[in-house]
Amino acid sequence: MKDVSQLKFPDDVRYVESHEWVKEEGGRARIGITDYAQDQLGDIVFVELPAPGTAVKYMEKFGEIESVKAVSELFSPVSGEVTEINAALADNPERVNDSPYDEGWMAKVRLDDPSELDKLMTAEQYDQYIQELS
Fold first, then answer.
1. What DSSP state is assigned to residue 76?
2. 87: which residues sit within 8 A by CB, 6+ positions away?
3. Cβ(28)–Cβ(109) under 8 Å?
4. What is the pLDDT of residues 10-59, one digit of tens each?
5. Alpha-carbon gap, residue 77 to 19, rounded angstroms
6. pLDDT digits (tens, 9 = 90+) for 90-110
7. What DSSP designation does 100 have?
8. Contact (Cβ atoms closer than 8 angstroms) between residue 44 and residue 38
9. In the chain, what are the domains?
10. Three-state DSSP state, 90
């Protein structure tokens, strides 16, 4: 595992305590897990994601991620309808480890309530939260 100081938390995304991130993209949100989460999980071997058209709710389970260490639930940081999933993860789940904010994103959601984003942590707040966990 990396030292916390080596982990990346981009400023242009929001974070939740369950270690998912969300990036608003014009009424839609791209969702994934944080650098901290992928580092803690270890090698990702499988990602189960909802089908496009599925409704997701703020902080409710929307999928699972399996690593060599454990199976963990994924929680949606926003409410809305899944418009796209990262199908490349089916054959290449390690992209979550290699690039959690870019190639390792998991789902795109049409936002029901953009104000939910205001409830989420900034990069600075999330970094502080991680420091407290360590």
1. -
2. none
3. yes
4. 999 999 999 999 999 999 999 999 999 999 999 999 999 999 999 999 99
5. 10
6. 999 999 999 999 999 999 999
7. T
8. yes
9. 4-123 (2.40.50.100)
10. helix
